[in-house]
């Protein structure tokens, strides 16, 4: 909006004309309130307020604008020299003394007027004056700061972002009270004109990455941004990959932590999900709580998580490969037990696994989409159908149910939903490889997967860093988490300029 | 253009992968899992028997333990073993799967004629692993040993495998021999192979029927007894239990064992070997080969059956140590003597020991080792028996019972 373009039509000095033009453009929408009041008791000069019912806070408009204008018009009774004095003084005095509102901007063209009105401000136009004012009266019903639904912690802050970008920014500001925390605003979306905020800590973030974020956001030309997912897809480095290269979170503490590592946050109005770039693979496997619990606990949980990834990717494929090609790998008793269960199963293990996995995915999706009250019913039916009836009916073997449920549960230990889904999707080709080539196929699949992961980049940073390329100093916060007192330096991937997280300890020599 | 080319390539690759048709894929319920196999010779043909597990009958799921036996036996005859194995598909619904073979029984009469040809198949086939045990049936056809039903371990093959393992570890007159060590013994000079014997005791016919396991005291049982002595690949005789134990002491093959000596008065004292270490050293002294065997044994007193023994005294312990050492030495001597005189077969690898210490002399000794030099070989045995503990009691309560 603060992009004065020469093609934008400037305001007329005739109020009537202005109003006519505005009404015509906004199409006489019912929710637009246009209210005209005289500026002084006898004055012919009129003043008009324009705001949208529901987006502007009515109380603010009444108490601070209408009220003060009214009282002003009463006191300005004897001052008949308003006409004689310059309009500038008039407007200035209104701004300075009359309007008791925090933020007031000048408007000169219609485009700015529309922008202000449509984003909830109240526009004040004065007859005979070619500049208007917009008063910040934004105030609509907000969900408020509630506990984040998708990222739960046992220990840690319970506040989550809401849909309003102003509140979200404030939540981050409250965590980082440094003058170095910067916020650049943008408006993206030709029709939706969504507000976007780019946040970073100036002294830590890599300027190149900040510049790159700006450049990529500026290149976006789309009619609407309704969620940060739009932005994510439009700025990601690589489109042909199941893996996300942009991190998203609805936790202000996570954003704050990432900002302190030199990353850049992209806030989008209208969604609690904030984007963070660059996002190497490992950041999707770290949960907020890893840093709040003791280091040993966190490390243990992280190791569990990596096991979970392994199982969720390879569980059914390993089962298929071993039971179809490498029966000699099983202990004899186990082989006999498994063979006994498979005696009556009509399908090959691959089909069996495929049926079960597909059933599970359907149930999971149904559980997510269903209203909460029906969701429970779905899961009960699901467990009954998959768990016992299918085994009883001899459609699948009991071991397969164990394998599939273990796989399903394992995939839920991955903190990032989108990465969990990525691994769940890759499970199917892996199963195919396992069913056609056994363990060789699985190995082939893993090699392909690793090659692919290593080829990805996220805002110029290698996706698999700090593993490939290997940065020994950054291993302190990857597979395990070192105690905070050992994590002296920030990760090197995104920033090189402000490396020390802790004050460097005095060396032994200087202490003596 | 380039992109389209890539897409075509990708699609055709995907379709090609469907053409492979899952090479070599076998579902578990398409396998006939062979756990035990045996070989007999009938006239000039091999008779191959495979004990195939019936998974549905073994598993603990409901419906298991029904009317069928836990395993079934497929038997076929052919001129060669491999042909016999493949011929079994005529009677078996599935192809035999050998990876989980636990035990392989060679018939006694076949072993007497020479068993080398049998082993090639076992060693060559890629499916067969080398961790199964080989035994020789004693006084019974190999096929029949695979027909006995067993309790506790419902699959007879598992019973045979575990029992051999346990008895080698705790009793010591039997020994586990895998295909690798057997072939190793066959091809190296200065060592002849030995295999554990497997007998059927009791009623063979009842043992074959399900009634066998319905009794608390099964009428027919499988039992390991003694070692079979080979000369090259031919079975030439058997060692009894005592000799077998002596043999295992010489071979440093004893993990734990039990043996008795008589008390000063009457009754017996039983010692339990908890650790044994044998070093066999060969040498050539004035052109004559000789062998020194040093055995260091640590044991506990496991049982006292006489009243006169006072285990709290040092002298008594010394005395016991000496006696027990002597007893073990004797059984070692007896087995050496038997091998030298009756069988003329170096089953101990003394020849190997001499080759190691004096390879030059071995070159001349090698020829006719078993017949000439081994039979006259001077063997000195030195047993050092140490009693480490007397159990939870010192003196036996028998002392006070008078």
TrEMBL record, chain A:
The keyword Signal does not apply. The keyword Nucleotidyltransferase does not apply. The chain crosses the membrane at residues 303-322, 373-391, 397-420, 432-453. Keywords: Membrane, Transmembrane, Transmembrane helix. It comes from the Bacteria. InterPro entries: Spore_Ger, UPF0353/GerABKA_families. Belongs to the GerABKA family. PANTHER family: LEUCINE ZIPPER PROTEIN 4, SPORE GERMINATION PROTEIN. This is Spore germination protein. It comes from Cohnella silvisoli.
């Amino acid at each position: 909006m603060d992009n004065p373009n020469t093609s934008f039509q400037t305001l007329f000095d005739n109020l009537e004309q202005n109003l006519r033009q505005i009404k015509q453009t906004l199409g006489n929408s019912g929710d637009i309130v246009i209210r005209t009041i005289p500026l002084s008791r006898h004055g012919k000069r009129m003043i008009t307020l324009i705001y949208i019912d529901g987006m502007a806070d009515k109380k603010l408009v009444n108490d601070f604008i209408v009220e003060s204008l009214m009282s002003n018009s009463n006191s300005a009774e004897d001052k008949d020299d308003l006409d004689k004095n310059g309009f500038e003084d008039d407007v200035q005095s209104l701004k300075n003394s009359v309007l008791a509102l925090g933020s007031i901007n000048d408007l000169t063209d219609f485009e700015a007027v529309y922008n202000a009105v449509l984003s909830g401000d109240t526009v004040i136009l004065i007859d005979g004056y070619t500049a208007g004012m917009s008063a910040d009266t934004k105030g609509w019903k907000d969900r408020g700061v509630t506990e984040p639904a998708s990222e739960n912690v046992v220990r840690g802050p319970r506040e989550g972002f809401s849909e309003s970008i102003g509140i979200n920014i404030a939540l981050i500001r409250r965590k980082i009270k440094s003058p170095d925390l910067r916020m650049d605003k943008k408006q993206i979306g030709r029709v939706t004109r969504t507000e976007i905020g780019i946040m970073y800590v100036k002294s830590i973030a890599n300027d190149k990455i900040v510049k790159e974020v700006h450049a990529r956001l500026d290149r976006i030309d789309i009619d609407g941004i309704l969620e940060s997912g739009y932005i994510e897809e439009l700025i990601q480095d690589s489109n042909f990959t199941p893996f996300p290269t942009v991190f998203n979170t609805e936790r202000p503490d996570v954003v704050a932590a990432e900002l302190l590592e030199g990353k850049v946050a992209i806030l989008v109005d209208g969604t609690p999900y904030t984007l963070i770039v660059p996002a190497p693979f490992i950041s999707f496997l770290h949960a907020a709580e890893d840093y709040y619990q003791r280091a040993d606990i966190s490390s243990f949980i992280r190791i569990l998580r990596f096991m979970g990834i392994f199982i969720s990717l390879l569980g059914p494929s390993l089962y298929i490969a071993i039971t179809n090609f490498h029966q000699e790998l099983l202990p004899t008793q186990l082989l006999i037990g498994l063979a006994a269960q498979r005696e009556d199963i009509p399908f090959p293990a691959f089909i069996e696994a495929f049926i079960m996995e597909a059933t599970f995915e359907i149930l999971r999706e149904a559980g997510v989409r269903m209203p909460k009250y029906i969701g429970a019913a779905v899961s009960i039916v699901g467990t009954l159908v998959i768990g016992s009836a299918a085994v009883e009916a001899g459609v699948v073997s009991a071991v397969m149910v164990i394998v599939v449920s273990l796989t399903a549960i394992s995939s839920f230990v991955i903190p990032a939903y989108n990465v969990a889904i990525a691994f769940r999707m890759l499970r199917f080709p892996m199963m195919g490889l396992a069913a056609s080539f056994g363990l060789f196929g699985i190995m082939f699949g893993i090699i392909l997967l690793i090659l692919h992961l290593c080829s990805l980049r996220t805002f110029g940073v290698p996706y698999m860093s700090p593993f490939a390329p290997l940065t020994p100093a950054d291993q302190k916060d990857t597979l395990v988490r070192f105690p905070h007192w050992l994590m002296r330096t920030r990760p090197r991937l995104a920033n090189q300029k402000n490396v020390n997280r802790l004050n460097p300890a005095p060396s032994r020599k200087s202490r003596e | 253009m380039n992109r389209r080319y890539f897409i075509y390539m990708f699609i055709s690759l995907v379709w090609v992968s469907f053409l492979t048709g899952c090479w070599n894929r076998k579902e578990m319920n398409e396998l006939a899992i062979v756990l035990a196999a045996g070989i007999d010779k009938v006239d000039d043909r091999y008779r191959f028997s495979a004990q195939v597990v019936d998974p549905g009958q073994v598993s603990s799921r409901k419906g298991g333990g029904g009317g069928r036996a836990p395993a079934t036996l497929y038997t076929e005859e052919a001129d060669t073993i491999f042909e016999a194995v493949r011929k079994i598909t005529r009677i078996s619904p599935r192809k035999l799967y050998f990876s989980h073979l636990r035990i392989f029984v060679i018939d006694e009469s076949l072993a007497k004629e020479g068993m080398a040809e049998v082993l090639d198949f076992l060693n060559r086939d890629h499916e067969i692993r080398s961790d199964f045990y080989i035994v020789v049936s004693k006084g019974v056809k190999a096929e029949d040993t695979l027909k006995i039903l067993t309790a506790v371990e419902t699959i007879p093959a598992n019973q045979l495998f575990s029992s051999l393992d346990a008895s080698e570890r705790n009793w010591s007159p039997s020994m586990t021999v895998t295909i690798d060590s057997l072939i190793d013994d066959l091809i190296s000079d200065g060592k002849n192979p030995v295999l554990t014997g497997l007998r059927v005791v009791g009623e063979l016919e009842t043992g074959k029927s399900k009634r066998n396991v319905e009794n608390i005291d099964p009428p027919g049982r499988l039992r390991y007894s003694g070692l079979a002595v080979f000369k090259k690949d031919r079975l030439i005789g058997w060692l009894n239990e005592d000799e077998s134990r002596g043999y295992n002491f010489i071979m440093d093959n004893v993990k734990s064992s039990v043996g008795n000596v008589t008390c000063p008065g009457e009754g017996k004292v039983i010692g339990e070997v908890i650790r044994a270490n044998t070093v066999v050293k060969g040498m050539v002294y004035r052109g004559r080969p000789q062998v020194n065997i040093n055995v260091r044994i640590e044991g506990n007193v496991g049982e006292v059956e006489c009243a006169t023994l006072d285990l709290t005294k040092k002298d008594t312990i010394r005395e016991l140590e000496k006696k027990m050492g002597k007893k073990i030495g004797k059984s070692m001597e007896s087995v050496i003597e038997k091998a030298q005189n009756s069988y003329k077969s170096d089953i101990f690898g003394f020849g190997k020991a001499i080759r190691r210490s004096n390879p030059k002399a071995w070159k001349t000794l090698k020829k006719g080792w078993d017949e000439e030099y081994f039979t006259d070989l001077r063997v000195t045995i030195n047993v050092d028996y140490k009693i480490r503990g007397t159990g939870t009691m010192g003196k036996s309560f028998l002392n006070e019972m008078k």
